[in-house]
Specification:
By secondary structure, this protein is an alpha+beta fold. The chain contains 2 helices and 4 strands, in the order βαβββα. The protein has a 4-stranded mixed β-sheet, with helices on one face.
Length: 122
């Protein structure tokens, strides 16, 4: 029973597209619980550990999402953080594919957290 009236996004374009796709079912509903959202994402990939030669062994993927919710004239700000460690691979195609899977999972988790937050405001 949620309707997103407007959504503005800034930050990481790829993550924004994934999150927007996850939220698409909440745009065309017949709900009176209407929300305006501003979402700012920051996605980073850090080297966690290196071997003796300096080659990365493990990466840490992080998504920080700041959400500004406007509901009934009230502004509510909240932040969601996700992180995941992955082991480096010599197969860069498989590594990139795995990272993209994790990004999609981050988007799903972030959508669920946003919807739970919206439901809690009713």
């Amino acid at each position: 029973d949620i309707k997103i009236l407007s959504l503005s996004m800034s930050g990481d374009d790829h993550m924004n597209n994934l999150i927007k796709t996850e939220l698409k079912n909440y745009f065309d509903t017949d709900s009176n619980n209407e929300y305006n959202l501003e979402i700012n994402t920051n996605y980073q990939k850090h080297v966690n550990t290196k071997d003796a030669t300096g080659k990365p062994l493990e990466f840490r993927l992080e998504l920080n999402t700041n959400v500004n919710i406007n509901y009934n004239g009230e502004n509510i700000e909240t932040t969601f953080n996700e992180s995941f460690n992955i082991t480096n691979s010599s197969d860069t195609f498989e590594l990139r594919k795995y990272e993209n899977t994790i990004k999609r999972d981050f988007a799903k988790i972030t959508k669920e957290k946003i919807i739970l937050k919206l439901i809690s405001l009713k």
